[in-house]
Amino acid sequence: MYTTAEKGLPTQTRALMKAAQQTYHELPADAVLLLTETDLDWDCVRELLPSCKLLVAAQDKLLTQRLKTYPELFVLDIDPGPTPKQERLSLALLEAVANDLLQPGAHVIALYNGIEDEENGPEPVDSLTIIHLGEHLERLSSRDLRQLDTQVPLETLRAVVDLATEIGREGREGKPVGTMLVVGDTAKVMKMSRPLNFNPFRGYSRKERDIRDRKVREQIKDIAQLEGSIVIRRDGIAVAACVYITAPAEGITLSKGLGTRHWAAAAISKQTKAIAIAVSQSSGSVRIFQNGAVMLQIEPFARPMIWQHFNMEVADGEAKAPVAS
């Protein structure tokens, strides 16, 4: 005999939800994430997952709005569009972290339809995946960074992005810090800049300036509090700090609200083959520039990269200008 809940859902969906409920407690997991293409019998879903933190991401905006009328659901408002299931899953996880529904190291049980079948329309849930969120976000970071068309090795780029993200999230000594890091095409970058102060890297060995070393990155966090940009070679060796970028900003268009640091990052990335990374002092957001445009944006809640057009935000207390750092 089926319970009331079991009668409202397909057999395979019932079976997977029972497995999710058991795994949730035995693992234990932090949440169950349900990707749905249709409006389900949510009373039935809650009976099958009675004590689970249930996150739900829908296929479209209309369904999302309908789901928000159910008080027991944590609805994730994403706009997946015509994207593969795995990308929708990543979008939902990132949204959950952004809204403090998940921590970066959480364990999540994902339920979704893993078989694409456009001809026959939406299909019931047929897949269960256990996701260790920290590992998932690490893979996402690597994948997104590889999409940058640059000669900077991935190992160097990830080390610099890690450094920028930590500065944005942590600040220094309890105070927010804004800074800019420029990686690669160093000779040309230095020709388009001038020193603001002494170079704190002068006199140190190559090993003591290698940002791939975590100890070195911790030291650079102190240097990031100084005015100006930090210049790093493609091999990960920091060569200069307290540098003022003088690259022209012709032909660059940025969102309103972004300050001179972001304009300088856009300008130097357009005039050279370097990757420029701007850390917002006001929000902690990290923006990665290439060819004069924002390619990746990293929010301070976690490390994952989000491909997106950046949103308008309050400037860093800086007036819009074509050059600065």
Task: Describe the model.
This protein is α/β, with parallel strands linked by helices and 325 residues long. It is 33% helix and 19% strand. Strands 7-9-8-6-10-11-12 form a 7-stranded mixed β-sheet, sandwiched between helices. A 5-stranded mixed β-sheet has the order 3-2-1-4-5, sandwiched between helices. It starts with a helix and ends in a 27-residue tail after the last strand.
Key structural traits:
2 domains, 10 helices, seven-stranded mixed β-sheet, YojJ-like (1, alpha/beta, 12 strands, Pyruvate Kinase, Chain: A, domain 1, five-stranded mixed β-sheet, disordered C terminus, 325 residues
How would a crystallographer describe the biggest sheet? Answer: 7 strands, mixed
Mean pLDDT: 81
Helix amount: 25-40%
Per DSSP E runs of 2 or more residues, the count of β-strands stands at: 12
Classified by CATH, the class of the largest domain is Alpha Beta
Q: From the alpha carbons, calculate the radius of gyration and give it in angstroms.
A: 23 Å
N-end to C-end Cα span? 70 Å
Fraction of residues in β-strands:
15-25%
